[in-house]
Amino acid sequence: MADQNHVVMVNIVTPDGVVYDHHANLLVASAIDGDVGIMASHEPLIAPLKIAEVRVKRTDNPHHEDAIAVNGGFLEFSNDLVSIVANSAERARDIDLRRAEYAKQKAESTIKTAEEKHNVDDLARAQVSLRKAVNRINVSSHK
User: Fold this and answer.
1) Concatenated DSSP letters of 107-140
2) Counting CB atoms within 10 angstroms of each CB, which of 22, 45, 91, 131 has the fewest?
């Protein structure tokens, strides 16, 4: 394991439990206000997250980066501990690509129907579903 003075602990949790728990040299996430990179000794931070990929450069394999599809939530960093709390999150290796592609097609169909019927509520929900599906598809390519 790497020198404990230069690592952060990364925890990603959802209502279903812990999705990710590792030591890392670097974490990159997409906050609402822009991308944030966190290394050891970073200033404390709390940031709301976008529906996007979180990348983690682990200490046990410096040539590998873990990718996790995070669907919003928030990130907190303090005392070399990154905690991400999200409604849902999946590691690249756990994503069912066929299911994600089906969700994408279904969301695109719902968007088309909602636009034709001028249903703004269904349109907004379908656009979020589409962003989640596209995020999962993109992250799945990092297996």
Assistant:
1) HHHHHHHHHHHT-HHHHHHHHHHHHHHHHHHHHH
2) 45
What global pTM score does this model have? 0.90
Report the Cα–Cα distance between both ends of the chain, in Å, rounded.
23
DSSP letter assigned to residue 60: S
Tell me the per-residue pLDDT of 60-72, one tens digit each, with 9 for 90 and over. 887 889 999 999 9
47 φ/ψ angles, rounded to the nearest 5 degrees: -145, 135
Q: Which of 50, 26, 58 lies closest to 134, judged by CA?
A: 50
Assess contact for 71 and 132: CB atoms under 8 A.
yes
Q: Based on C-alpha coordinates, what's the Rg of the chain?
A: 17
